Amino acid sequence: MKKLFIHNTVFRICAPMLYGVLVYLLILLVNNTLNDLLKIYSNKELYVCLALSYLSFESLRATIILLANLLTRIHRKYRAVIQTLASLCVSLFIVYLGVFCYFKYVEGYSVGWYELRLFFVIFGFTAVLYNILYSSNEYLLRENTVQLNLEAKLREKVEADFATFKNDINPEFLYESLESILQSLYIDVSDAEDQVDLLASIYRYQLMHRDKELVGLAEELNALNSLISLFNYRANGRIQLSSKLDSFFDAHVVPGSLLIAVDTIIRNTLLARDGIFNITLYEEDGYIVLQHRLNDKLILHEESLLAFARIQRVYSFFSDVPFVQVKAYGENYIKFPTITILENASVRQM
Predict the structure, then answer these.
(1) Are 18 and 113 in contact (CB under 8 A)?
(2) How far is the C-alpha of 113 from the C-alpha of 323, rounded, in Å?
(3) In angstroms, rounded to a whole number, what is the distance separating the alpha carbons of residues 111 and 101?
(4) What is the rounded CA–CA span in Å between residue 134 and residue 292?
(5) Containing H/E element for 204?
(6) Are 204 and 255 in contact (CB under 8 A)?
(7) How far is CA 194 from CA 190, 210, 222, 229, 241, in A?
(8) Who has greater pLDDT, 229 or 167?
(9) Rg (CA), the chain
(10) CB 56 within 8 A of CB 88
(11) Could you say which of 127, 238, 267, 344 is the most buried, measured as most Cβ atoms within 10 Å of its Cβ?
(12) Containing H/E element for 319?
C-alpha cells in the first residue's frame, strides 16, 4: 500500500505546488492573452490556487483511503466507479468552500457562477485524472506483486531442486559399482582396487563440493573421467570421452552436472557389443556441449531422467541462457550454458 504514488511524501508536497501554478496560469489565460499575464498577475491569487490544489489532492487521497477500507467486499470495477464519483464530489465541495470563503471574506463579494464553473471544470478534471492514475498504479502494483510471488515460489522450487541435486548420492550407481567391485575381487584384485579408488574419488569430489554452487570445469572433468573409467569396467572399455575444450577455457559448472548428464546418457543408450560409444565435449556459441550418437533403449531409466530434469531447473538459477537438449540427424546435443565468475565474484553467462 505504501508503494502507491499518492502516499509518496515528495509527490504530496511537490505535485500540488506545480499543479496549483498551472491552474492559476490556466485561469488567467481563459479570458486574457499572454501579453496580459504580467499585468494581471497576483501573488495572492496564486497562493489561493496553491491552497486549493493542496486541499483537492489531500481530500482525494483521504477519500480513496477511506473507501478502500470500507468497500473491501465490493468488486474492484464497481469500487473504482464509486471511488471516483465520491472523491469527485468531496473534492468539488472542498474547492467550493475554499473559493466561496476567499471571495466572501477576502475580496468582500459573493462568488459568481462563472468563477465557480471554471474552478469546477478544472478540479473536476483533476479528480478524474487523479483516480485514473491511482487505479493504474494500483493495478500495476498488484500485477507486479503477483509476478514477484510467482518468481519467489519458482526460486524456492529451484533452490529446493538445487539442494536435492547436490545431496543426491545416486544409490543405484553406488550399488552397481559395489557389485562390479565384488565381481572383480574373484578375478583381479588390482582391478577391484582401481575401481574402489575411482568410486572414492567420485564421491570425494561430490562431498567436497556439496556446499558450493559452482566449480571450475577442470575439476568437473577430472571427476567425469573417473566416472567414465568406472563405467568402462562394466562396459569393457567401449565408452570413450573426447574433450575438444581449450586447456585455457575458463568456465564453471554446477557440481556434478556433467556427471549426471553422462550417467543419464549411458543408462539410456544401447551400447554396441563391438563398437566404441563416443561422447564428445566441446564449446560452441557460449555453450559447453555434450554430443553423442543416438541409440535409445526401448525402456528408459526414469530415475536418471528425473535427475537430468533437475539439472535443467538448477541452471535456470544461475543463467538466463537456457539449458538446451537437441536431438537431430541421429545425434543428441546437450548444451550447458557457459558460466564465468568475474573478479568481483559476480556470475556472468558467456
Answers:
(1) no
(2) 70
(3) 9
(4) 58
(5) helix 189-208
(6) no
(7) 6, 24, 15, 10, 19
(8) 229
(9) 36
(10) no
(11) 127
(12) none
Residue type, 281: L
CA 307 to the chain's CA centroid? 24
Give the C-alpha separation, 65 to 62, whole Å: 5
Q: pTM higher than 0.70, yes or no?
A: no
pLDDT of residue 154: 67
Q: CA 287 to CA 285: how far, in whole Å?
A: 6
Distance CA 315, CA 291 (A): 19
**Which residues 6+ apart lie within 8 Å of 308 measured at CB?**
260, 261, 264
**Sequence-separated (6 or more) residues with CB below 8 Å from residue 66:** none
What H or E segment, with its residue span, contains residue 129? helix 113-167
d(CA 266, CA 272): 12
Of 263, 266, 282, 277, the C-alpha closest to 333 is 282
Q: In the 8-state DSSP scheme, what is residue 216?
A: E
What mean pLDDT is reported for the chain?
80
Q: List b or e across 103-132, with b for residues whose CB sees 16 or more CB atoms inside 10 angstroms.
A: beeeeeeebeeeebebbbebbbebbeebbe
Instruction: Give the C-alpha separation, 170 to 51, whole Å.
Output: 73
Strand partners, 293: 331
- What is the C-alpha to C-alpha distance for residues 260 and 319, in angstroms, rounded to an integer? 19
What would you measure as the largest C-alpha separation in the chain, in angstroms? 117
d(CA 57, CA 55): 6
Which ranges of 213-267 would DSSP assign to H, the alpha helix? 217-235, 257-267
Question: Is residue 275 helix, strand or coil?
Answer: coil
pLDDT at residue 242 is higher than 60: yes
pLDDT tens readout for residues 161-204:
555 545 455 677 778 888 888 888 888 888 889 989 998 898 88
Decide: helix, strand or coil at residue 287: strand
Confirm if 272 and 280 have CB atoms less than 8 A apart.
no
> 283: helix, coil or strand?
strand
Calculated CA dihedral for residues 237, 242, 247, 252, nearest 10 degrees: -90
